[in-house]
Design a protein that fits this description.
With 436 residues, this protein is of the alpha/beta class. It has helices spanning 12-25, 58-71, 119-123, 132-142, 159-170, 204-211, 227-238, 252-261, 266-272, 297-307, 341-348, 353-360, 368-377, 383-389, 406-419, 430-435, and strands at 28-35, 39-46, 49-57, 83-91, 94-105, 108-115, 147-152, 177-181, 192-195, 218-221, 242-247, 273-285, 291-294, 313-316, 327-338.
Length: 436
């Protein structure tokens, strides 16, 4: 455990304040209060990894839970149903913007506090770890007058940060930008932001219909969750608006398939979709203690097959007083697809999934695997982190590949490399990878 508190002498108000401030100072993204049979365990998530923070005796846990629910403006008498709340204010000179969620579990109420950090969104697009090639494609996409651009990834992969950064870039006096969100995570001066409210019937689809009568240039939809929202978003982009949104998918191909599954007509999707930005977050190596080491034979083979490079040395984590186990912060791994005419024609012609895959990954795309390995070569993260992200291997044992589909990820990268006129003979090691 990182911290201990004197629950007898220290007021509950001060304990809660100290937990919130200390977690924020440590760079945590979430605080978990987990009720157990013997006690309550507080854990914090730093750089994507949960770690034990403190223990709360059973006779104090209800007081802590009640205090958090009170300042989050939640119903303290309701313990049987999930609730959501928010905390916004200044504690000990630190501005805090927190989202609070409660969930009834077997031993009480589990509380999770999301610590919102807008520093990356405010820093600008150039600070979001895009490679030079991907950054250029991104700028081309967001400067088109109409179309739909999707930012995709799992929960907690920085989708909102990317979307808000794009909005900051596009926010100009001559542009009418309207967003519909649930919730509004970051207020931006000069942008009209709509908060949905399902209790009164103000959902994404209803808000979007009204927004289209507000003469918008750019529309941002917090998330495309259902077929009705997807259809309205696509039609809005066709009628002369630039539409930004997020979808919970893993890569560019999955995103196109998801929209088709949502009953978006293919000919409309072919006309509307401008691009897809897929991303994941890897832990960033601490610049103070990262160490160089020789690559293993397995790592050399992967680098050769995916990047067509002979890599002899890479950086690894060590650990020091400035970091957590050799990592400090996180870095985005991105795949940016700009829809070209061949892909549009294929969607209109209803081609098979395999044909669509070939077209997507021959469209000058740097895959997530390629982008991640490039950042390993640059010393930004570790080989194990990238393999863990794309589910190719376990970072603790990179020689055991029996349970992962390495071939598919490699093939996707090869298709992308082939489109860039890379000699296919460079990938003759694939059979070797499969037999390692």
């Amino acid at each position: 455990m990182i911290r201990t508190f004197d629950y007898v002498k220290m007021p509950v108000v001060d304990i809660v304040n100290e937990i919130l401030v200390d977690a924020s100072k440590r760079g945590a993204s979430d605080i978990h209060l987990d009720p157990r049979e013997e006690n309550m365990v507080i854990r914090i998530r730093i750089d994507g990894v949960l770690m034990d923070y403190a223990e709360v005796p059973n006779n104090m846990r209800d007081y802590l839970t009640t205090r958090i629910k009170t300042i989050a403006k939640m119903n303290i008498t309701e313990t049987r149903l999930p609730q959501d709340g928010a905390i916004k204010g200044n504690l000990q000179g630190i501005d805090l913007d927190l989202r609070v969620s409660s969930l009834p579990v077997s031993h009480g109420e589990k509380i999770v506090i999301r610590i919102l950090d807008y520093s990356m969104s405010l820093s600008g697009l150039e600070q979001l770890d895009f490679s030079e090639k991907n950054y250029k494609k991104l700028l081309e996409m967001i400067n088109v007058p109409n179309g739909i651009i999707l930012v995709t990834g799992a929960t907690g992969t920085g989708k909102s940060t990317t979307v808000y950064s794009i909005l900051q870039y596009l926010n100009k006096p001559e542009t009418n930008i309207i967003t519909v969100e649930d919730p509004i995570e970051m207020g931006i001066e000069g942008i009209n932001q709509v908060q949905t409210n399902s209790k009164i019937g103000l959902d994404f689809a209803t808000a979007l219909r009204s927004i289209l009568r507000q003469d918008p240039n750019i529309i941002m939809i917090g998330e495309i969750r259902d077929s009705e929202t997807a259809k309205i978003a696509v039609r809005a982009s066709i009628t002369g608006h630039l539409v930004l949104s997020t979808v919970h998918t893993n890569n560019s191909l999955n995103t196109i398939e998801r929209l088709i599954d949502m009953d978006v007509q293919k000919y409309l999707l072919a006309s509307a979709l401008e691009g897809v930005i897929s991303q994941k977050l890897a832990r960033r190596l601490c610049p103070n203690c990262k160490v160089k080491r020789k690559t293993t034979e397995y790592e050399k083979t992967i680098f050769k097959a995916v990047l067509n490079k002979d890599i002899e040395e890479i950086y690894d984590n060590e650990g020091c007083e400035h970091c957590n186990d050799g990592f400090h912060g996180r870095i985005a791994i991105q795949e940016v697809l700009r829809i070209n005419q061949k892909i549009r024609d294929a969607l209109s012609d209803n081609v098979s999934k395999e044909e669509l895959r070939k077209l997507v990954y021959s469209a000058d795309v740097t895959t997530l695997l390629q982008d991640g390995l490039e950042k390993v070569v640059n010393g930004d993260t570790t080989f194990g982190e990238i393999l863990k992200l794309i589910e190719l291997d376990d970072s603790e044992n990179v020689s055991d590949k029996s349970s992962f589909d390495l071939k598919q990820a490699i093939n996707m990268s090869i298709q992308a490399n082939s489109a860039n006129n890379v000699n296919n003979s460079a990938f003759s090691n694939i059979s070797k990878i499969e037999t390692l």
